Known about the structure:
The protein is an alpha+beta fold. It is built from 7 helices and 17 strands.
Amino acid sequence: MAKRLHVILARAGVASRRQAEELIREGRVAVNGKVVVDPATQVVWGQDTIRVDNRLIDRLEPKVTVILNKPRGVVTTVSDPKGRPTTAELVRDIKARLFPVGRLDYHTEGLLILTNDGELAQYLQHPKYGIPKTYLAKVKGLPTAQAMKRIRCGVILNGKQTAPAKVRKIGTTGKNTWIEMTIREGRNRQVRRMWAAVGYPVLKLKRTRYGTIRLGNLKPGTYRRVTRREIEDIRKCIPR
C-alpha cells in the first residue's frame, strides 16, 4: 500500500515526520534514483528504492524510546559546529538512530525524550495536541500576585498571546522564588521569555514531566528506556 514519503521515513526511524518533511524539501531524499521535494509523494515500502543523503533506507528499525536527563551546557542536537557536548553523545551506546522530541536550550536541564518512533514523536510535539510539559523554574525576585496572574492568563510574545498556563509557587531561596509551571505550547525558550516579560528572569530551569512521562530521580547525563506501560499510556491519549 502506498504511503506518503515523510511517513515512511518516520517509520524507518530516519527522523520525525516534521524533520522528514524538512529533509525532503531540502532535496536530500531520492526515490528510485530521482530527487523528490514533495513530502506527500506516494511510495510503496519494499518496492520503491529510497535514499537519504545517498544512504539506502531498506529496513524498519525496532522502535526505541528513551528519556534523558539533559544536563545544563549540553546542546540538543546530533552534532555541534562549536564543539559543545551534545545529547547524541549521551546516548551513543544505543545503536538505533534517535532524534529528540522537541528541544531544551543550552542552559535548560531535565527531561528530554529521544526516539526513532516518528508517529510517537509527531503526536508528542505537534501543537494541535497540546501535550502538557511541566517545568521547575527558579526566578529572580518574588513574583507578585499580578505577575502570577499574567503568566496564568498568557503574555504577549512576538505579537501573539501564549496559551493559559498552570503555575504555583514552590518556595523561596533568599530573594529568589521556585516556581512549578505547566504549559501546552512549545515556542522557542517560552518559559524563559514569559517570565522575562513580567519582570522576573529565569535563573534556572528544569523540565520534570512531558505528558504522562516523569523525570523521577534519573541522574543528570543518564537515560533510561521508556517502559511498555508508559508507551501504552501515551498511545491511549492519541486521537484516532
